[in-house]
Fold this sequence. Notes:
Elements: E1 3-8, E2 11-16, H1 21-27, E3 53-54, E4 73-75, H2 79-94, H3 110-117, E5 141-143, H4 153-161, E6 168-170, E7 177-179, H5 196-200, E8 206-208, H6 212-219, E9 225-230, H7 238-241, H8 251-261, E10 265-268, H9 269-290, E11 296-297, H10 302-311, H11 325-341, E12 348-354, H12 358-363, E13 378-381, H13 382-391, H14 413-416, H15 423-437, E14 455-462, E15 465-473, H16 475-486, E16 494-498, H17 516-532, H18 542-552, H19 558-564
Amino acid sequence: METVTLTVDGKQVTVPASASVLEACKAAGIKIPSLCYHPELRAEGACRVCVVEIEGVRALPASCVYPVAEGMKVKTNTQRVRKARKTVVELLLANHPDDCLSCQRNLNCELQTIASDLGIREKRFPGEKKKHPLDANNPSLVRDQEKCILCGRCVRACTERQGVNIYSFANRGFDTTVVPAFNQGLDQVPCTYCGQCSSVCPTAAIVEKDDTDLVFAAINDPTKHVIVQTAPSVRVALGEALGMKPGEAVTGQMVAALRRLGFDRVFDTDFSADLTIMEEGAELIHRIQTGGVLPQITSCSPGWVNFIELLYPDLLPHLSTAKSPQQMFGAVVKTYYAEKAGIDPKDIVSVSVMPCTAKKAEAIRPEMRDSGYQDVDYVLTTRELGRMIREAGIEFAQLPAEEFDAPMGISTGAGVIFGSTGGVMEAALRTVAEVLTGKELGCIEFQAVRGLQTMREATVQVGDLPVKVAIVNTLKEARNMMERVRKGEADYHFIEIMACPGGCISGGGQPVPVNPDIRKARQAAIYECDRDAVLRKSHDNPAIKELYDTWLGKPMGEKAHHLLHTHYHPQTRG
Length: 574
């Protein structure tokens, strides 16, 4: 690899020749403030906050797009640089709303942090404020253009990472905005509600729709029995929302905090992840043995389901009919659990805590009422749960670990790895391999399907059958795969698709920021939870066995099909 050596603030540093000055400064241990820059998106140099002085260069270049050169001399902390950065931020603040204390991103806002770091204590320029209506007519996301600083991160995330291309710049000068086509709301365009735009937004211009007040109200209603389920990846990210380092598994403290918030029962979505494997695995075996539509594609990720319904409706027969773990849990809690606990299902309020903004839209789909009620009443993101815990004054890090409630809190390691890309595939292989062969696996860790690459494939020998699988994450890669399926070039048995990079560990509702290092830490914690589990295969879960033996019958049976399966339909928006 070709390298160059340059000097940053008097310190020599050697970096790849392809590096930017910003990356060289980082290698030298110097933090350069930036707003439009994001390590996983194409650099644009639009905000001009990251300017530096370079010997021999008259202007102050944006370090995120300026290439390094041999012998270059860079200064990052001169009076000229500080003044330029401060002026840029002051101009941004001039027409930014003055509502920091009530803003959802207060104390976790990049604009606020940089203004503080630069010593800005007053608004020097009393600029004109922008006036735009809220885009809040969809169930998942809220867009507030008055808080948009035109960094373009959402545009690039939606285009480069997801390949959905919802956002673009419109108008000029002061009137410039970032909007969907024809300035329509997200509910009127083919948005998948994946929330990756909210994950990269440096301010609160795009956030999840907040349902915390509704959940607090339900908890405080003495006539309601309020249960909560927590998704696998929440336990490895919630700590970040409460001041802990990335990658800490906080399962026990999370359960304790939920009880202190007042939930009547604290259950685990890992239970219904195990249930999903039983149904989805049985469906895959049935398709293989009867010549059904292959490849079968997972249906756990609602952002991905929205994507195929909106853009590839002709390929819907490939989608598994199994509901997501969230929705299977919702259907079972208002039927099986209600019956077992002797509670009228109309008095049950079913809450889920998810890493995903698209789950909010999934919960209100008309197909998700097989219990006779809305199966899941409210969906909270990991960020929302973090805010509820802080609002309640709970000292999270000091809580003693507690266990989930039975029976729907009993789960396996196979359920927890759903939280990472490749996890659904690995969990399914653990069960399908043993069901098809009738033999216990010697090694249950399928390393070939693990990783963070956006597309991976493997062939796994299951008895006499070589099972060919693919694992896809991000909707851009899903588009590439769908084109192959449409052309008949995807000769797989089973494909796992997750809408978000790395899967649920970096879902649109997870704590921000998210970067490659944080993603790796969360994934490592997921697999550690699996290794520490007493049971690691879905079909070994005793609570799942009891559910089938005493109530459901068999996987893919009549009762299971009614409650746990559905059919998806083409969507038309925009």
